[in-house]
């Protein structure tokens, strides 16, 4: 799923609860990453593959870690989203017979529902795979082999691969008891 060169810097995004982006920025530095732009509920950063996995394993503040594949501006229509997604080399990320799921966030004038946005992204993936001669993948929203992250806000589209799977606050804690009243990623020493 990630490039074979384990030392090449990867472009990543760590998402977090709104308001703790500064704390996440500092945590990423402590884990060995190089933070970049901070956004609402997230921090873009670069890191090697090993450090990206370290962030997935040890971050107490990140909800998800996204490997950024493409960031495009001036995207507003479903056709534009589909075209951007179809230009990605999905055969490098999705093997034949694997399943996928799309988590779409955001909206535009023409994309007003996240389900429609997710369907549009999936259609772009299918177009790219079929053009490459690969079979159509199945969708599995519960346990996909590949989870795709898509965010459209103010005509800026980000497409990436979710490296963390489920939200990091669900890392297997309290498997046999009731739900925790707070997310596990919330800092204990505020």
UniProtKB/TrEMBL annotation:
Query: Which InterPro entries does this one have?
Result: RlmL_1st, SAM-dependent_MTases_sf, THUMP_dom
One matching Pfam family is THUMP
Q: Which residues form the THUMP domain?
A: 51-163
Q: What is this protein called?
A: THUMP domain-containing protein
Per UniProt, the keywords (alphabetical) are: Methyltransferase, RNA-binding, Transferase
Source organism, top-level taxon: Bacteria
Cited Gene3D superfamilies: 3.30.2130.30
| Record carries keyword RNA-binding | yes
Which classification does the entry list for the species?
Bacteria, Pseudomonadati, Pseudomonadota, Gammaproteobacteria, Oceanospirillales
